[in-house]
Amino acid sequence: MKPPVARPDSPPSPCCCTPPAAARVASSSGRSARTALALAGALLVWLAAYAAIQPVSERIAFGLLGLGRTSHLGQSVAFFLYDAPKVLLLLGLIVFLVGIVRSFFTAERTRALLAGRRESVGNVLAALLGVVTPFCSCSAVPLFLGFVEVGIPLGVTLSFLVSAPMVNEVALVLLFGLFGWRVALLYLLTGLAVAIAAGFILGRMKLERHVEAWVYESMRRGAAFEAERLGFVGRVEKGREAVRDVVGKVWPWVLAGIAVGAGVHGYVPEGLLASFMGKSAWWSVPAAVVIGVPMYSNAAGIIPVVEALLGKGAALGTVLAFMMSVIGLSLPEIVILRKVLRPPLIAAFVGVVASGILLVGWLFNAVL
Q: Which of 31, 77, 171, 337 has its CA 20 to 30 A from that of 181?
């Protein structure tokens, strides 16, 4: 008897090396469950550590080290021991969450969202995208170049360039944690207003001729991109990568800023800062901007200084103007911009943004 012959239309036998679809789904579900449990455990540890900061810092400063509670050194050390772990814990949590958000907003997708929009609508979208895309002033410049290359209007790209560093999501959440939702909301709304207005005004000035010629020579329209497909585990990994990359780079700035803030908190007399950074001195806001522009720091490093300044009697508007000038008009950003923009456009950009920051400072000093 002849052996049965396989029919031509019969399905091929499955390879023994390929796992069934059900097994792959089960494996993926298992990884997601383990990741969720690990996140829950990490959150509990984070909450316990955050709750222990104040008693532990006071025990070390006033108990273990034996410093006086009313002494300048005691106040400075207690401020540092309290703020350093608090800011680093907040920074780690926020950067992790932002890393997950960032997995939805790649540079290519950001460009695609802005391309083809009306300029006024584009200014608003660009400013809003600047909030959710965590780029510092220097890393925003290459994105600005990519925007120009794909034909996005110059004014729209400048709205993004202002918003990305100035309305910093780390600063926003740290301000919320340190000063409450009112200050954080004021920072968000005024930063967006400056970014939208600056981009709109610069766009009306028709300054495209002051962009370096090589930028337009390399212009590419309709750049295609393939969105990265990530599941739950992949997005959590993006958050972990963000913590390693961002916190690993900025923690020295954070500690330096907290050290400066601790010195201000412990040694600067209460009335000194209020005398030249208070509401009564009209020139305090432009002075704060002039001081802030040459400085370079990220939001995480400048927030502890802001906290100390406010605690010593400085006016909110003056301090906000100082913070915005440091993170929104940094000197390294201007140096990098010179590679793609000519001096007249850089001067117009700095002038318009600085004017907006001045108005913010004077407004808050007058209203609050």
A: 77
Residue boundaries of the structural domains of the chain: 107-220+231-367
Helix, strand or coil, per DSSP, at residue 341: strand
Sequence-distant (6+) residues with CB within 8 A of 119 are 153, 155, 156, 200, 203
Answer for the pair 211, 345: CB distance below 8 angstroms, yes or no.
Answer: yes
Q: Residue with structure tokens 């925003």? A: 140
224 has a pLDDT exceeding 50: no
- How wide is the angle at C-alpha 178 spanned by C-alphas 128 and 68, nearest 5°? 155
**Of 358, 345, 356, whose CA–CA distance to 158 is shortest?**
345
Average the pLDDT over each of 179-193, 201-215, 246-260 and give the range with the smallest value: 246-260
Q: What percent of the chain has pLDDT over 90?
A: 4
Q: Is 364 helix (H, G, I), strand (E, B) or coil?
A: helix
Q: What is the DSSP letter of 16?
A: T
Does the pLDDT at position 232 exceed 50?
Answer: yes
Residue 136 has pLDDT above 90, yes or no: no
Tokens of 55: 């008693």
Largest separation between any pair of C-alpha atoms in the chain: 109
Helix, strand or coil, per DSSP, at residue 211: strand
Return the closest-CA partner of residue 144 out of 212, 43, 67, 226: 212
CA distance to 85, 137, 152, 303, 358, per residue, from 90 (Å): 8, 21, 35, 12, 29
Q: How far apart are CA 213 and CA 340, in angstroms?
A: 9
Counting beta carbons within 10 angstroms of the beta carbon of residue 365, is it exposed (0 to 12), middle (13 to 18) or buried (19 or more)?
buried
